[in-house]
Design a protein that fits this description.
CATH topology: Metallo-beta-lactamase, Chain A
CATH class: Alpha Beta
Largest sheet: 7 strands, mixed
Radius of gyration: 17 Å
CATH superfamily: Ribonuclease Z/Hydroxyacylglutathione hydrolase-like
Pfam family, one: Lactamase_B_2
EC number: 3.1.-.-
Keywords: Hydrolase
Strand order of the largest sheet: 6-5-4-3-2-1-14
Number of domains: 1
Structural class: alpha/beta
Order of helices and strands: EEEEHHEHEEEEEHEHHEHEE
Protein name: Ribonuclease BN
Strand content: 25-35%
GO molecular function: 3'-tRNA processing endoribonuclease activity
Shape: globular
């Protein structure tokens, strides 16, 4: 299975990174719809596309407004899954007729339980602590698994640790390097050492860092080597990176 990293920045795009969007083309699944969503079109390989949103902040949902171009001359049906209050906020504000006068070609589906995936897989979602609320996702496929945790403050005491235990691949936000712990708590984001500690405590196979600060538009804005000292199999996601798992 391939995970395509289409946008790995937080907050806003930078010269090298678009905002949050990840895709499993083989099963038609997209995690978040930030500005990196414009890269989905060339990777559509299924008649159904399911987009799962972590929350409704603009850096994770702006790509919904790209759907007309994404689906141009394609027969793909799109469902957008999110918590009902997030759907309501998107429809009322982002898709207000004053901002976006024609409704995008998609169906909104409230998250109400586990979701069956094509090929016999299953997606589970769980709450995360973040201003306005967020959710993480665990995807279990035949013979492999992954989890997506973004927009939360990492800690080995966090409730979500048990939800991600033992996954082959953990995609986890890391907005800050170490030393900004208080700011991370205030904004609902993570510093690098706690993220690595979570990966180790949860017994995951690999750790991929994402949702980095766009102001630090450099090769390594968070200090990957620090994480590797705690959890050796750690890499920093980059736009258009393809990860096999």
């Amino acid at each position: 299975m391939q995970l395509h990293c289409l946008g790995v920045s937080g907050y806003h795009p930078s010269q090298t990174r678009q905002t949050a969007c990840f895709m499993l083309p083989e099963i038609g699944l997209v995690l978040d719809a930030g500005t990196g969503f414009h890269r989905v079109r060339s990777r559509i390989a299924t008649p159904q596309l399911d987009i799962f949103l972590s929350h409704a902040h603009l850096d994770h949902v702006m790509g919904i407004t790209f759907l007309f171009d994404t689906l141009y001359q394609k027969e793909t049906q799109v469902r957008v899954h999110a918590e009902q209050p997030k759907i309501d906020a998107i429809c009322q504000h982002l898709l207000s007729p004053l901002l976006f006068p024609v409704a995008p070609p998609c169906q909104f589906v409230p998250l109400k339980g586990d979701v069956a995936l094509s090929g016999g897989g299953r997606l589970r979602w769980f709450p995360l602590k973040h201003p306005g609320g967020s959710v993480g996702y665990r995807i279990d496929l035949p013979g492999r698994s992954m989890a997506y945790v973004t927009d939360t403050t990492a800690a080995v005491t966090a409730d979500y640790l048990e939800k991600i235990r033992g996954v082959d691949l953990l995609l986890h936000e890391c907005y800050f390097p170490d030393g900004l712990d208080q700011f991370a708590q205030t904004t609902g984001h993570s510093c690098i050492t706690p993220v690595a500690q979570v990966a180790k405590a949860a017994g995951v196979g690999r750790l991929v860092l994402t949702h980095v600060n766009p102001l630090d538009d450099i090769d390594d804005p968070v200090g990957v080597e620090i994480a590797q000292q705690i959890f050796p199999d750690t890499v920093l996601a980059e736009d258009e990176m393809v990860i096999e798992f």
